[in-house]
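Appendix B. Raw example, untouched.
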Amino acid sequence: MTTPAERTKAVVDTRDFLEMLASMDEVTINGLVQSVASGLLRHFPNNIEIDVSAAALPSVWAPPLPARVVGQPRCAHVVRLARTRTNE
């Protein structure tokens, strides 16, 4: 069973991941990933909206963790696993 804290963390981490994808300098698959991430983020809740939802529905949401330190992502970072023709 998912707890409110786990649900909130998943939504916040997903938003952070989508923001990272949407702002990547390197274009992949002709911008498909970035454009999909940007489209999803358009309607994705921010921390204020999640906080309001947590106050109204504490059995569903938990307040988000404090804002991350600049330069310290809350979720995964990009690691290049293999060399490709584009980065040789």
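End of appendix B.
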